[in-house]
């Protein structure tokens, strides 16, 4: 299915987590920026730590590790 | 007993929180006795952590349970979280349908466990994950093929995580277990009394042939420029060395998730190495009408969770006058599972010396970037929180307060609503509740 991550189109298989799509789009770049400006990647993988938070279809602070990609989804990591 | 649901309010005779092995078993057992059941889970797909779907495909036991739930008419709410407990047996929940109140007559908590994720120098670098954390991400399509991964910490979950990562094409360049060789040998001796576990261990071992296995070893630091490039380790004899890698997957066992139980007023006490919801042999908590099953009552594995789930479902059905099977049928099997869990907890305890492993600039609170140097002079958790914002971020202290409670021997703080971050619109749904008495903080 076709989605976009930070404006860039990407094809991901069915069952792909939003957090995984962010990593596929830009390996190692991370999703969240901490208060001190440090890039972070997901830690817990199960919705506890919040390091995977991204904006999904305009909704801020969505947990990328608890959300599956859907066709046409727009993910932003830079907000 | 059933009243029609309104858009803002749902009702079920039995509400089950958590769709892992324990919650699924409880929901099936109650529903197949003819009781009205609603099952709620935070993840998009049921299964919990151990039965997590791989690339969207349900694990086999989950698929079977979901078929049975569907034929029994159970409502399953996915991607839904409990925001807080309200008076009069009501929960405020949030999910794809927005905020709603969920009324229950009986509540079964199957909230599971989370990984014990401890801070160490470099743990905030991209490329450092929980062990179960990376396993979960990889099952959701996180690219791992060809990457060099070090798996470290303590407990059987490390073997399972390493096995999954290897199967998905990762190069596991080190498996670092804190338990020492003699403790592992004693544990292997106890496995003889649990042939099924021994068989599982052999299978995992076979899947990891050729992986460098370091016993009595520990992670000292993760290092790299902008992301992890190597892991510094200390071996059994105190010798240090480094392993070059692309990822570190580190975890130190599991912690029961008791926040919802605490907010309901359920008694909590240490069990199998960590604070857990206190239950009796009928899985009843200290609060009338509230039962608990699985890892949130003490980390004992998926088999114990299923046995407890079936017990709870049958107990509730019998109490409501439905035709239920013998509720205590599983007592002997459950006792065996708990005996094994006690051996696991004894062999793979959480590290006792964690304060020695922190450097001044280690960020203990990842949400708010609070370093160890700002925390160690504080008198207690509340002061630390007020002075530094430690635990006031998204995770609400689920990571850093566990660490600090252990390292500083500080008492834990009571669970406070909201239990998970929620938009203001969600909290406004409380006000429609006529009997709400407590002020929001």
Question: How would you characterize the overall build of this protein?
Answer:
- The complex is a heterodimer of chains A (79) and B (441).
- By secondary structure, chain A is mainly β.
- In chain A, strand 1 (2-5) and strand 2 (8-11) form a beta hairpin.
- Helices cover 10% and strands 30% of the residues of chain A.
- Chain A has a 5-stranded mixed sheet, with helices on one face.
- The model of chain B is unreliable at 434-441 (pLDDT under 50).
- Chain B has helices at 21-31, 60-71, 131-139, 157-167, 181-191, 195-207, 259-264, 301-319, 331-347, 372-375, 381-388, 400-408, 424-428; strands spanning 9-17, 37-40, 75-77, 81-86, 90-94, 100-109, 113-115, 128-129, 148-154, 171-177, 213-215, 218-223, 230-234, 240-244, 247-252, 254-256, 268-271, 274-277, 290-292, 363-365, 370-371.
- The two termini of chain B are 34 Å apart.
- The A-B interface holds A 12-17, 19-21, 23-24, 27-30, 34-36, 38-51, 53, 61, 65-68 and B 42-45, 49, 53-57, 79, 114-115, 117, 124, 126-130, 132-137, 140-143, 226-227, 366-369, 393-395, 398-399, 421.
- In whole angstroms, how far apart are the ends of chain B? 34 Å
Query: What can be said about the biggest beta sheet of chain A?
Result: 5 strands, mixed
Reading side by side through the largest sheet of chain A, how are the strands ordered? 2-1-7-5-6
Poorly predicted segments of chain B: 434-441
User: What is the radius of gyration of chain A computed over CA atoms, rounded to a whole number of angstroms?
Assistant: 11 Å
Oligomer: heterodimer
Strand content of chain B: 15-25%
- Strand-pairing-aware structural class of chain B: alpha/beta
Poorly predicted regions of chain A are: none
State the distance separating the first and last CA atoms of chain A.
Answer: 24 Å
Most strands sheet of chain B: 7 strands, mixed
Q: How would you classify the helix and strand content of chain A by structural class? A: mainly beta
**Computed CA radius of gyration of chain B, to the nearest angstrom:** 22 Å
| Number of beta-strand segments of chain B | 21
Number of strands of chain A: 7
Shape of chain B: globular
What general outline of chain A do the C-alpha atoms trace?
globular
């Amino acid at each position: 299915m076709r989605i976009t991550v930070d404006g860039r189109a990407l094809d991901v298989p069915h069952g792909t987590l939003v957090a995984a799509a962010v990593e596929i789009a830009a390996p190692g770049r991370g999703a969240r920026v901490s208060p001190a400006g440090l890039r972070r990647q997901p830690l817990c993988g199960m919705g506890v730590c919040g390091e995977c938070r991204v904006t999904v279809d305009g909704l801020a602070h969505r947990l990328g590790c608890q959300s599956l990609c859907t066709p046409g989804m727009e993910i932003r990591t830079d907000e | 007993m059933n009243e029609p649901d309104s858009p803002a309010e749902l009702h079920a005779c039995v509400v089950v929180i958590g769709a892992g092995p324990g919650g699924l078993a409880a929901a099936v057992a109650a529903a197949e006795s003819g009781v009205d059941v609603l099952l709620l889970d935070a993840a998009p797909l049921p299964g919990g952590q151990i039965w997590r779907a791989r690339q969207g495909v349900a694990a086999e036991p989950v698929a079977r349970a979901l078929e049975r739930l569907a034929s029994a008419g159970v409502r399953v709410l996915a991607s839904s979280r409990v925001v807080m407990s309200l008076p009069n047996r009501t929960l405020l929940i949030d999910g794809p349908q927005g905020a709603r109140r969920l009324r229950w007559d009986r509540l079964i908590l199957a909230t599971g466990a989370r990984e014990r994720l401890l801070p160490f120098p470099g743990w905030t670098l991209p490329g450092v994950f929980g062990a179960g954390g990376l396993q979960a991400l990889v099952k959701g399509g996180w690219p791992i093929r060809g990457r060099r991964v070090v798996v470290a910490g303590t407990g059987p979950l490390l073997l399972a995580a390493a096995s999954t990562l290897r199967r998905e094409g990762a190069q596991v360049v080190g498996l670092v277990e804190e338990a020492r060789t003699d403790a592992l040998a004693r544990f292997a001796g106890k496995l003889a009394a649990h042939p099924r576990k021994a068989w599982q261990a052999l299978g995992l071992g076979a899947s990891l042939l050729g992986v460098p296995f370091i016993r009595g070893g520990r992670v000292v630091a993760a290092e790299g420029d902008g992301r992890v490039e190597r892991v510094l380790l200390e071996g059994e004899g105190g010798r240090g060395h480094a392993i070059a890698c692309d990822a570190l997957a580190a975890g130190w066992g599991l912690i029961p998730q008791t926040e919802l139980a605490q907010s309901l007023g359920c008694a909590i006490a240490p069990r199998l190495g960590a604070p857990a919801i206190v239950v009796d042999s009928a899985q009843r908590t200290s609060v009338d009408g509230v039962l608990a099953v699985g890892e949130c009552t003490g980390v004992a594995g998926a088999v114990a969770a299923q046995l407890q789930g079936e017990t709870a479902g049958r107990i509730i059905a019998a109490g409501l006058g439905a035709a239920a099977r013998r509720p205590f049928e599983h007592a002997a099997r459950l006792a065996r599972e708990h005996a094994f869990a006690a051996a696991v907890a004894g062999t793979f305890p959480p590290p006792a010396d964690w304060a020695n492993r922190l450097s001044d600039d280690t960020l203990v609170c990842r949400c708010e970037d609070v370093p160890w140097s700002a925390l160690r002079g504080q008198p207690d958790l509340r002061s630390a929180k007020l002075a530094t914002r430690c635990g006031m971020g998204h995770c609400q202290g689920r990571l850093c307060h566990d660490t600090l409670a252990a390292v500083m021997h500080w008492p834990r703080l009571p669970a406070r609503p909201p239990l998970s971050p929620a938009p203001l619109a969600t909290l406004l749904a409380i006000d429609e509740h006529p009997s709400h008495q407590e002020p929001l903080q």
